[in-house]
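Renewal narrative, Specific Aim 1. Our central claim is that a sequence can be written position by position from structural information alone. The example that follows is taken directly from our test logs and has not been curated for this report. It begins with the structure tokens describing the chain, in the order in which they were read.
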């Protein structure tokens, strides 16, 4: 029994843990998971930590047909002093509830959600890897489980948390990646679901991702859905460009995901007195800045990859090499500072760390 009266049932035999140099992203899962039910007449109930296992659902469960689901992604870090640290988990839970609201999924008490994350991570603490750059990725998600073939918000849901020990998201690590501007497909437009973490956004983006990979790029850079002129974001990262000493990132316009890493990057840059602007920015502006030698750096920012420098940006037939394929000064400083705080090697002056 825990503070929230979650029941706990433990596995009989624990799995072998992967070696830290085998860790990629999202491939291994821990011994236990958290599951909680929702019924419209009962609210959220019956939170449990149980052995990691397949879930059984009625084939008419609404998640399978209409995709009513949301998810989050955050990490637990093993600090040098033995503490377990979460980075701004309250931001993830706020976003989870914003996603819930958009997808007509019931709100979840933030303390209950955070309590469930902390209880599960604590229970699985032996799974938190401690080699440099590794962490325990936390994936909370909610699915509509009511068996009903009608288009309406479901009356029953499951909230599940699974954990995965991870290494770097891109095989390149902190080395610069190559990104292709996507000029055919659209990820999201204002009024749609682009600003929330819901499955369909990602399913709809696979085709562009496939095309980019076939052409030797790690990710696509999405453009706005109206004019296909303005930069939105990368598949799972927000994006920043440094032009003439000023860091520019697309403003949150209703179709871009409001990243926790994005918010932290902006706060750090302001703290360092580096000019940072949230505004609309076009591909053309980037191309011109590049041509005139004013495009100094570009990088993506997200929980999975932290900071990922962009070494090459392909816009149709125009290949822009950025900072000679090298990690830029600001990218490096942001990466070192954010990971320094996450792993407890730097002082948490912003109050971003929540210890378990
Ligand atoms: C999760 C995600 C991000 C990054 O958000 P963080 O909170 O920084 O992890 C950016 N874009 C998309 C589309 C995402 O799904």
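The sequence written for that structure reads:
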């Amino acid at each position: 029994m825990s503070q929230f009266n979650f029941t706990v049932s433990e596995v009989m035999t624990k799995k072998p843990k992967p070696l830290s140099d085998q860790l990629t992203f999202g491939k291994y899962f821990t011994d236990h998971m958290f599951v909680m039910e929702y019924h419209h007449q009962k609210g959220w109930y019956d939170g449990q930590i149980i052995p990691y296992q397949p879930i059984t659902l009625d084939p008419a469960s609404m998640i399978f047909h209409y995709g009513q689901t949301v998810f989050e992604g955050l990490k637990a870090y093993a600090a040098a002093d033995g503490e377990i640290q979460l980075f701004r988990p309250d931001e993830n839970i706020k976003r989870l509830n914003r996603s819930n609201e958009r997808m007509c999924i019931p709100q979840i008490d933030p303390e209950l959600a955070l309590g469930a994350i902390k209880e599960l991570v604590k229970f699985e603490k032996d799974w938190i890897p401690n080699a440099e750059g590794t962490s325990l990725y936390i994936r909370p998600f909610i699915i509509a489980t009511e068996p009903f073939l009608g288009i309406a918000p479901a009356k029953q849901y499951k909230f599940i948390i699974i954990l995965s020990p991870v290494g770097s998201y891109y095989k390149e690590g902190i080395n610069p990646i190559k990104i292709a501007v996507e000029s055919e497909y659209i990820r999201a437009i204002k009024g749609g679901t682009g600003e929330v973490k819901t499955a369909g956004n990602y399913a709809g983006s696979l085709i562009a991702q496939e095309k980019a990979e076939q052409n030797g790029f790690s990710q696509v850079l999405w453009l706005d859905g109206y004019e296909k002129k303005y930069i939105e974001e990368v598949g799972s990262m927000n994006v920043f460009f440094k032009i003439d000493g000023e860091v520019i990132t697309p403003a949150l316009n209703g179709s871009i995901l409001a990243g926790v890493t994005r918010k932290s990057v902006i706060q750090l840059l302001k703290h360092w007195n580096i000019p940072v602007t949230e505004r609309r920015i076009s591909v053309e502006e980037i191309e011109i800045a590049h041509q005139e030698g004013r495009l100094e750096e570009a990088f993506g920012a997200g929980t999975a990859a932290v900071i990922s420098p962009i070494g090459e940006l392909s816009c149709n037939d125009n290949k822009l090499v950025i900072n000679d394929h090298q990690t830029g000064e600001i990218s490096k400083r942001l990466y070192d500072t954010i990971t320094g705080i996450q792993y407890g090697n730097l002082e948490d002056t912003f109050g971003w760390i929540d210890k378990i």
